[in-house]
Amino acid sequence: MAERSAAGRSLAAADGHGAEDGVPAVTARLAVPGAAQMRLLGNRLAGLLRAGDLVVLAGSLGAGKTTLVQGLGEGMAVRGPVTSPTFVIARVHPSLRGGPDLVHADAYRLGSRLEVDDLDLDADLDHSVTVVEWGEGMVENLAPGYLRVTIDRPAPGPGIAQAAAGDQWNAPGDQQKGTGDQVRFVTVTGYGNRWDAAAGQLRSVLAEPLR
Ligand SMILES: Nc1ncnc2c1ncn2[C@@H]1O[C@H](COP(=O)(O)OP(=O)(O)OP(=O)(O)O)[C@@H](O)[C@H]1O
Ligand SMILES: [Mg+2]
Description:
This protein has helices spanning about 35-45, 65-75, 160-165, 195, 200-205, and strands at about 5, 10, 25-30, 55-60, 90-95, 100-105, 130-135, 145-150, 185-190. By secondary structure, it is α/β, with parallel strands linked by helices. It has a single domain, classed as Rossmann fold (3-Layer(aba) Sandwich), CATH 3.40.50.300. Strand 5 and strand 6 form a beta hairpin. Helix 1 (about 35-45) packs across helix 2 (about 65-75). The N and C termini lie far apart (about 45 Å). The relative contact order is 0.26.
């Protein structure tokens, strides 16, 4: 049985099923050439998010998950700074304009879906936007639909130059020299009725060039 937080339900909501087995409402893959563009993508996605939404972030260490959340936080106008929740599992960033709060969680240290039951937040997820780094396969059952963002960080090699060029971006070594920026490939997939209904909006946000 899931613990309940003072303000409502915990991250361990066991009621209802997630949409993880469903057919995605929309999916798109885009090349993101640097950290600034990753923040811009987050900022734009924030414009679509509303209370009760769940965003599941996947990608290896240093892929750019927190960088994307920084953009989400900026777009949602929440109190920052958004940083990796290293010593806490989740942090609540209150809205500065009366919108939903941003709950930023990191499931890296949680071994299994069951352990998510231990996570108890002083936040009502129905009134917040919840974003979980390393949340894939762990938290999808928290909401009837969710947005999954997978960030791939390609290994250096000639293949990247080609792949990036195909997406109209230069090879990592050729762009924004000295900033440490490297291309990432981001796949955004919306599941459930929530994203069925917003598929058109999501598609148009993802189609906008990141510059
Ligand atoms: N295209 C890019 N998109 C995002 N970040 C990038 C990009 N290119 C370079 N970076 C850099 O990569 C790093 C990404 O770090 P970040 O903390 O966002 O990753 P993370 O996926 O949250 O890592 P962790 O798994 O440790 O939580 C930052 O230093 C950022 O500046
Ligand atoms: Mg992180």
